[in-house]
Structures are given as structure tokens and as C-alpha cells.
Amino acid sequence: MRVPNWPRARAALAIPLAVAPLVFLASCGGDDNTVAPPPPEPEGLRLHVPSPDWQDQIIYFLMTDRFDDGDPSNNNQGAGEYDPAVNAKYSGGDLAGVTRRVEYIRNLGATAVWITPPVANQWWDPLLQYGGYHGYWAENFMEVDKHVGTLDDYKRLSDTLHRAGMYLVQDVVVNHMGNFFTYGSGWSATDPAASFQLNTQSAPRSAPSQAPFDMNDPRDASFRDAAIYHWTPPISNYQDRDQYTQYQLSDLDDLNTENPVVQEALRKSYAHWIREVGVDAFRIDTALHVRPAFFKDFMSNTDTKAPGMFAAAKATGRNGFLAFGEGFTTDRPYEDTNTRELDSYMVDPATGEDILPSMINFPLYGTATDVFARGRPTAELSYRIAKTMSLHRRPHQMPSFIDNHDVNRFLVDGSSAGLKQGLLMLMTLPGVPVIYYGTEQSFTEQRGAMFAAGFQSGGADRFDTSSPMYRYIQSATGLRKANRVFTRGTPTVLKDNAAGPGVLAYGMAHEAARAIVVFNTADQDTLLDNLPTGLPAGTVLKNAFAIDGAGQDLTVGADGTVTLKLAARAGFAWVASSQTATPPVASRTLAITPLAALNQTGDFTLAGTAGTTAPFQLVIDGDVTHAVTVTPAAGGAWSAVVDTGTMIDPAVRHTAVAYDAASGAVSASVPFHVVRDWTLLTAVTDPAGDDTGPTGAYQYPTDSSWGANRQLDLRKVTVSGAGGAMKIDVQTNQITSTWNPQNGFDHVAFTIFVQVPGRTGGATVMPQQNASVPGGMAWHYRIRAHGWSNALFSAAGASATQEGTSAAPAPAISVDRVTQTVTFILTDSALGKPTSLAGAKVYVTTWDYDGGYRGLNPAAQAYAFGGGDGATSPLVMDDVLITLP
After folding, report:
1. pLDDT band at 648 (very low <50, low <70, confident <90, very high)
2. Strand, coil or helix: what is 191?
3. Can you give 276-320 as a three-state secondary structure string?
4. Does CATH place domain 679-883 in 2.60.40.420?
5. Radius of gyration of the chain (CA)
6. Alpha helices of 352-496 — where are they, by DSSP H?
7. CB atoms < 10 A from the CB of 260, how many?
8. Structure confidence by residue, pLDDT tens digits, 297-316
9. CATH fold of 591-674, please?
10. Distance (Å, rounded) from C-alpha 461 to C-alpha 327?
11. What is the DSSP string of 106-121?
12. Which pLDDT band holds residue 870 (cuts at 50, 70, 90)?
């Protein structure tokens, strides 16, 4: 239902739409804003506290099993589910471990702790050969899992957080239980018992212990008619809305959330944790796989016996209970389809009614990672920021993140410098910043343990408060806390680069406060020219933050702009002060004559005036490092040829400015586009059906999503060139998108090695693939791309286990489903600006990737390849080697 008082409160207070979360949280769950007195605290514990303003919070997200082991006695429950050496099994982290590390988290700057589901789980699934250590495979929503502790342990964590002035966020699941049953190939929509199979070897039990979820066998007529579950097989088509919301996600038993009995049971289950433990907020797993109507009931039902979450929270004194859904979906550059879908779970697009207070901002994550880790144009992030603000009613309430437990760690694809920039973005844009555990220790392991005995810990505790990234995050969180303009403000993008990495600048405004945040995402110096601050001339911008710790104050020029050179990977935040100074004045004037035509077909000439004969730089797309030095003729007239060899996309808007650092002079920018044709260099066909590995004996995983699709079977590789840029078209037997991947393809990872002609050095090892490149090749650059990642590496530092050095920009990726082709475009700057591609070698391989190259076993499993030893056998299913003429 519509939240009472929402329109009236917003209008009366004249609050801008972007700041509306304050009103939503104050008015949720009742007809007035009166805070109900909390129930008596049990045993002297401080469990129930008033809700905070969530946009002012910073959340630390941890995977309980992998964080810290405070009670080793609960590690092994005797079901073969515990082995810290194996990612699929429990490592031993628990609630007691979280409790004893609260001060570590608080000192980082976090104000809330989000834990993975603590409820009783399926410990081991023999069908998937994987365990529920993560907490998302429930068998009882109202019990604490024995591995993480007891109800009293959970209460102690809540008490400890609240006494530290912090808050508790619990991860919850409403879409599914664990994998207690499955269907064979004979599934029938009209006969749920057909092909039904119980997972009888599931540990610790083969069915949920909580009613009504224990009614999970449709062969029993009463269970079937109760319809607690959607009696459906796994999703096979993510584009089918009915499958997406009613079929099994990864074979997990899908709850019938349209059933009032299920709705009531879920309300009772999760109100229990608010009441008994004092949980302050929920993160709702897999929310997009449940229809939005369910969440109206889940949050706003006023049944006194089974209240919705708003009413349950209000009864404990929480008038601002936050629930944010997970929608694992991102948008491609300059698209917003999935962004709009996320918003449809917060606000009903047909009626305008509020549904969930918030959704996690996955589209922002996707674009930010592309920009900060992969060198994509900063204009893509400008677009995403603008869409976040224009399409969402409560953007300040949407949690934002840079990595989490379901995606690669940022440092797998990006650099520490890029990670620092991404974290600064989180701390200066609307949203609730989320720090994933271990990021502060520069983790590369997706789900590695922080404690010595845990999975991939390196045999040592990793709670180092003096580590560089911990200290950096401390300073970044301090910036956000000290300046309300970053927690409450509205952003306006001031400058970006459509051509590649470089400048991104946005202003933040809240009431009378103004701030400016600037990044250089390039790995070389960049010119920030003519930045329109919107501030009066002479305004002093006080340095509030610098990534390298060496910021300086700025003074706004007479025209309201600022121009300065930014070092590689720089990041700054300035806050406008009341102080004024004399505006800087350049000692000369530079000008560029506007072009007669916006579109250019190749190299072209720019001309203008410089006032004197002193040399200056002609800077294209902010790239100071490769700027052309121009010496004017007598009288100051000048002309220069613009090299367009790196410009491969006719849609990109390029800019040129004349700049003289010595005098402080800069011209107005001149825009242009370059329209360039690709030249076919070579094409190689590959036989069908040779996707069987180097021995001819490899098999695909047994899950039906591979089956006859044979996504790893290469059919043709075509290489084209445009100057030093390279386009690689990879045609396969079948492009699939079973898991709705952001890059448009899944169940295959392409690893492509490029040897640049005339270049010495390089590497022969194929990192993490147990192989070396063939044909006397030595690669200089390597692409690794699957459905959710797109990374480019140079050969520097590459070894059998190390991927090399992160490079940028990563290739542009596009998918043609008609021809079953994935296209990768590498700019010539990504390849080190070769003068020619003649003689280059390109080696294309296929495998799959899931937090690492997918496993290879003697016998194929549901999600592992068969036919070899994953420790020594090459992880290559099919390959093509090309030498360009």
C-alpha cells in the first residue's frame, strides 16, 4: 500500500526528491511518526534501538563463515560438511567471531554490520557437491545454524553493536529453501509428481524442519495441494518472466510466494529476528526472482498475529526499518532497462505505490567497475550517476558497493589505485556505502577467510589495522562522515571523457554546502580543462581529500572554471568555503578555430591563434602525456595535424584544447567525431565438435544448461584492424545467457592472448590454465572475459598462478545472437600503440570461469568439467591460433 503521510510530509517540508528517504523511513509502518516504546530488554541486553538515518550509515558486509572463528567447538557438526581447505565447505567462522571484531569494524569507519543469513541451513548438497556455509540454503528460517552459534550468541552480537552505536543488518531469503528436491527430464507442469526426486542424501536432513516448508513432496496429495512450493524445475530461460520468478534458481526449491500461507509463514519467520534479536535492517536475497506484489505484503501487512516488517519493527521502536533487495543485474553502457526493473521493486510503476524501501545499486557497481578497473570511458559512469538520480525515488537509500561475495574482488580485474578511486566514489555519491569484508586487507580471494585456520587465509589472521587499504578506507569514511553534503547531497556531473579513461568530475550540493569530486581514471596525466564549478569567481575550494594525501586548495577563475593537470589515478574532493581570493589570470590567450565539419574521416588539421610565438600543447581527450607541442608562427597563428589512429568508434565525441601550463592559458574545447572503416585482416574457421580439450576426452559439466549447447565450441575467428586497433570476432556453436549475464553470454570464458608485432619480451605461460601458448608465441596482452567480467592484463608479472598486470582500457564487448558471435575491440592504446598489426599473433581459448577457472575432474559433475586433473591438465576446451599477414 502507499505509505501514509508520504506525499504530505514531502510537500510540507519542501524536501528535494533526492533527499526523500528521510520521510519514507520516518513514516513507514503506521499512520503517525510516534516511536512506540520498545519491549523490555532481556537479560540486560541492548537489543532494541531507534532506527538511524540510513543514508548517513556505512555498512560492513561479511560472510560469517569466512570472517572470524570465535568458537571452534561449533565448527564440525559431523556431516562431512567442514573442511577449511575446500571452498565448498564450512571454514568455521561464527557469530562469536563477529562480536569480538566489532571494534575492528567500527574503527574502519563502518556504522553497521551486514551478516549472511544465520539461519539453519542445508549443510551439504550431494547433488551439487557444495555446502550451505554461506547461509542462503535454509532448512529452518527461525533457528540459528549450529555452525554460527546460538540465539544467545546472536543477541550478544546485537547488544555489542548497539552499545558501540552501530546497527545490525541480517541477510534474509524469501525466494527459496535449500536443494531438498529436484526434477528429472520428465517434469510436467500438470503433474508435479512426475520425475520428482527427493535429495535423500542431503545433510543434516533431507527436508526442511520448519512448517509449512516441510510439505515438500508433491507425491503426497496433501502436500501437493498445499502448494507451498512452485513445483518447477531449474530456470532454463531467464527471459521468460514466469520462469524467472517461479522456477528454481540453481535447483533451489522455489517457494510459492503467491500463496497466503507462505506469505504468513515468512512474515512470522523474519519478524522473529526483529523482535528476538533486535535486527535493524534486512538485505533480501534474490529479490528479483519474487514478484513485487509479495513485498507489499511482506513489508506492509498489518495483521497483528503475523505483521509485516514495518509493523514488527515499529513495535520494537524502529520507525525507520530498512529493507533492501538484491537485484543481480547490471546495464550495458548507456542503457537503463535493468535500472528501471530495480526501481519497479521500490515503486510500483503503475500506481506509484511504495514497495521496498530500497534495492542494491547493481547497475552503479557494474559501470563503476568498468570505469575504475577496466578503463572504460568515464562518460559511461556519468550516465549511470544521472540515471540513478532521475529514475529512483530514493537513491540515497540504495546500498552501493564495489565488490561482494557474488562477483570478483575488484583487485582480480583492477588495481589498488582503481580500488581507491571506486571507494572514494562510494563515499561521495548518494547511497549507503557497503564495504565487503577483506577489501580493507586488499583481498583477491572472493570468499577467503580473515582468520588463520579458514579457507585461503594464507595461514594467518588478517585483521591488520595498519594495512594501507585499511588506513585508506578509514580516511575515506572520515570524509563522508565529516561532510553531510556527501550523505545528503545531489550530484551534478561537471566533466567526463567519452573517448576513454580520464577525467570524471561531479559537484555535490546540499542546502548551502557545495563540494566537487574529481578523478583521473587514466594511467597517465590528464588535463582537467574549463571545469564549470558553478561557483563565484575567487571562491576558494578547500582540499578535503586526496587519494595520495597531497591535495591543495584551488581558487575559482574569473569565468567560474578551474583548469589543472591531474596525475595518473588521482582523486580529490574539495569543499567550497566562504573564503575568497583573487581569481587566477592567464598571461596569454589561446584559441582554436571551430571545425567546419563535426565528422572527420582520418587525420585532419586544427588551426587557431596563440597571441605569441611561445609553444603550447594541443591536448586531445585530456591526454597530456601524448599531447602535441605546437610552436606558433609570427603573429601567433598556428596549425597542427591531429592523429586519429586511436579513434575507432564514430559515436564517440572527442575534444581538443590548446593548453599552456606555464601561463595557465587554456582554450575553449573543440568537439569532433572520427568515422573510420575496419579492414579485414584474416579469418580462420575451426571444425565443429572439436571442443573436447587437448586430449580429446574432456566433457562438459552435466548440468542441462550446457548439454547440447556446446558453448565452448569455436567455429570461426575473424580479426580486423583500424590502424593499430584490433577487432576480434569469435563465433561459437551457441551463445547462451542462462544466468542473465551482464556481458550477454555465459557458460563460457574467452581467454585471448595477443602478441604485438615488433615487441620484445612477453610471456609464454597461460596463467591459471595449466598450459603455455603454442606456436613459438610470446604474448604481451591477455583478455579474460566471461559473462560478468572483462579484464585486460599485460604480461608483466604473469606466471602459472598470477594473471599479469592489470591494463586498460579493457576491450569493448558486443554480442550478435544471430551469428553466435562475441566481438572484442582493443584500441591501439590498449595494445601499446603499435604502428602496424602485420605479424601479430592471436590465440583464442575457451573454458568457463566462476571466481576462477571452473574445475576439471576425472568425471564431470553438475558444474565441473570432466576428463582430466584440474591441478595439472590444461584448462582449454577449444582453441584457435592466428598469425596476421
Report:
1. confident
2. coil
3. HHCCCEEEEECHHHCCHHHHHHHHHCCCCCCCCHHHHHHCCCCCC
4. no
5. 28
6. 362-374, 378-391, 410-413, 416-428, 468-482, 484-488
7. 9
8. 999 999 999 999 999 999 99
9. Immunoglobulin-like (2.60.40)
10. 33
11. HHHT--EEEE---EEE
12. confident
Q: What percentage of the chain has pLDDT greater than the value 90? A: 88
DSSP category for residue 868: S
**Grid cell in block for residue 819:** 551469428
Domain coordinates of the chain in residue numbers? Answer: 591-674, 679-883
Helix-then-strand count for the chain, H and E? 18, 46
The predicted-structure confidence for 811-843, as pLDDT tens digits, reads as follows: 989 999 999 999 999 988 899 989 899 999 999
Q: Please choose, from the candidates 855, 882, 867, 877, the residue with its C-alpha nearest in 3D space to the C-alpha of residue 750.
A: 877
Residue closest to 651 by CA, chosen among 338, 372, 365, 380: 380
**Separation between Cα atoms, residue 643 and residue 604, nearest integer Å:** 7
Query: Is 458 in contact with 450 (CB distance < 8 Å)?
Result: no
Query: Residue 76's closest CA among 178, 127, 137, 146?
Result: 146
Q: Report DSSP state, residue 421.
A: H
Residue whose C-alpha cell reads 563463515 in the numeric block: 65
Evaluate whether 699 touches 811 at the Cβ level (below 8 Å).
no
Q: What are the distances in angstroms from CA 507 to CA 371, 430, 513, 518, 808?
A: 19, 12, 10, 9, 26
- Integer Cα distance of 747 and 400 in angstroms: 27
For residue 771, give the DSSP letter: E
3-state secondary structure of 641: strand
> Residue 789 pLDDT > 70, yes or no?
yes
**Comparing 591-674 with 679-883, is the CATH topology the same?**
yes
* The three three-digit cell numbers of residue 342, written as one number: 530495480
| Distance separating alpha carbons of residues 835 and 495, to the nearest angstrom | 31
Least confident piece of the model among 39-48, 264-273, 690-699: 39-48
Q: Give tens-digit pLDDT for 400-446.
A: 999 999 999 999 989 999 999 999 999 999 999 999 999 999 999 99
Which amino acid is located at 862 in the chain? A
Q: Which DSSP string do the residues of 271-288 spell out, in sequence order?
A: HHHHHHH---EEEEETGG
User: Binning pLDDT at 50, 70 and 90, where does residue 22 land?
Assistant: very low
Containing 505, the helix (H) or strand (E) segment is strand 503-510
pLDDT at 515 over 50: yes
Pairing status of strand 670-674 against strand 714-722: unpaired
Angle between helices 337-344 and 362-374 (to 10 degrees): 150
User: Grid coordinates representing 597?
Assistant: 565539419
- For the chain, the maximum distance between any two Cα atoms, rounded to a whole number of angstroms, is 96
Helix (H, G, I), strand (E, B) or coil at 337: helix
> Are 632 and 613 contacting, i.e. CB atoms less than 8 angstroms apart?
yes
Amino acid at 573: A
Cα-based angle 651, 655, 658 (whole degrees, multiple of 5): 165
For the cut 80, the answer to whether the pLDDT of residue 61 exceeds it is yes
pLDDT at 688 over 60: yes
C-alpha cell at 194: 512426475
Q: How far is CA 48 from CA 24, 44, 167, 321, 740, in A?
A: 20, 11, 10, 12, 40
Looking at every residue in the chain, the average pLDDT score rounds to 93
User: Which ranges of 142-183 does DSSP label H, i.e. alpha helix?
Assistant: 151-163
Under the banding of pLDDT at 50, 70 and 90, the label for residue 37 is low
Give the residue-averaged pLDDT of 484-498. 98
Name residues whose C-beta falls within 8 Å of residue 215's C-beta, 6 or more positions apart in sequence.
222, 223, 226, 228
| Whether residue 239 has pLDDT greater than 90 | no
pLDDT of 709 strictly over 60 = yes
Chain-centre distance for alpha carbon 645 = 32
